[in-house]
Amino acid sequence: MKLEDLMVKIEEKIDEKLTPLLDTQKKYEGIFIAGKPVVEEKGEETDAGIRFARIAKCIAASKNDPEKALNYAEKTLYPNDKKLHMALKALSATTPSEGGFLVREDYSNEVIPLLLSKTAVMELGARKVPMPNGNLNLPKLTGGSSAYYQGESQNATKSQQTFGNIKMSAKKLVVLVPISNDLIRSSSPAADALVRDDIINQAKLKIDYTAMYGAGTAYTPLGIKSSITATYSCSTAAISADLPGSLVGALMNANAPMISVGWIMNALTWSTFYNLKTTTNQYIYRDEMRNGKLEGYNFKVSNQITTANSTAGSTYFDIFFGDFSEFLFGEEMSFELMASNEASYFDGTQLQSAFSLDQTILKITCKHDMALRHAESFLCYNRSYS
């Protein structure tokens, strides 16, 4: 055999022996070679908010023990959800306060957009502002200086701006959701979605109602209607085609910024506008209302609009109209999660035992406040139906 052929065979044998070692090196080179990132295992993909529901289920199943919750997720319910495992490891590394767990921001953010997108006030353009210390003090201009023409040899008259402030302090919203233990034991995505939706629907109804009607007590945020009594309009006349234009003009007359203007009405008011006709039986607003607008501005339908009966027997409904960029939603804490399968809860009539009903009670705590930058940027029109 020639020397050249012998050398080729030796090189082939060396390559054959080195191949497994080279493969191993390539697999782990991100760990050992500086500057090369480690490729993270992607893990299971889920819809928004589902992973938060999975955290809640695992915490509930483990009776608020984060290490057991992690083991429950890895070994039983969600072995492929690596991001969920990371979230539960983060919980186990912290000390819970009175059995509650602050869910990591990236996971609670999955729920917050879903929650706020279901509320009429937030969906119309309200501004979300952080309150890291639970309080926020916003200065605002309440009066401006004056400009005037001055004649020859006349003294100048001074004028100055006046200032006020908006004080916001976090109020505690508690969502108490009884969940069937059969749902908690199930790893089905449909079961996860049901847990998520229960939590979101409970919170969103309360937030939206408070944004419109909050009394502004020591424990409750101040809503739109309680803030704007000075600009409140009332009428017992039937809704006419002129009403939307009149309300738009009134808001413009108040010098509202007109940045994110919108309407909130209930279904009965919506149907009244939708069915308004001209004298020749042509629908006035129907075409644009099919596109979600009235007089060119977005509207949302909320059947939480308060109704009241007058002494004459008429039923009164509110129509909210304003620039929702002037509505501030200050948030201190997104979600604190607690769970118990032994507690009792009040269902509106009597106490129910979670243990007896084979349920687990999830308690979600949020802390936030609401305020209007300028009350003049909102109108609440009250009208009656005989």
Write the topology of this structure:
Elements: H1 3-32, H2 50-61, H3 66-77, H4 82-92, E1 101-102, H5 105-117, H6 120-123, E2 127-130, E3 135-143, E4 162-169, E5 171-180, H7 181-185, H8 189-213, H9 224-227, E6 233-234, H10 243-253, E7 261-265, H11 267-274, H12 286-289, E8 293-294, E9 297-301, E10 307-309, E11 315-323, E12 327-340, E13 344-346, E14 351-353, E15 359-372, E16 378-385
Parallel strand pairs: 2-12, 6-16, 7-9
Antiparallel strand pairs: 1-12, 3-4, 5-15, 7-11, 8-9, 10-11, 11-16, 12-15, 13-14
Question: Based on CA inertia axes, which overall geometry fits?
Answer: extended
Radius of gyration: 30 Å
Could you tell me the CATH topology label of the domain at 104-141 and 161-386: Major capsid protein gp5 fold
Describe the biggest sheet?
7 strands, mixed
Overall residue-averaged pLDDT value = 82
Terminal CA distance? 112 Å
CATH superfamily of the domain at 104-141 and 161-386: Major capsid protein gp5
> Which spans have pLDDT < 50 for at least 5 consecutive residues?
27-43
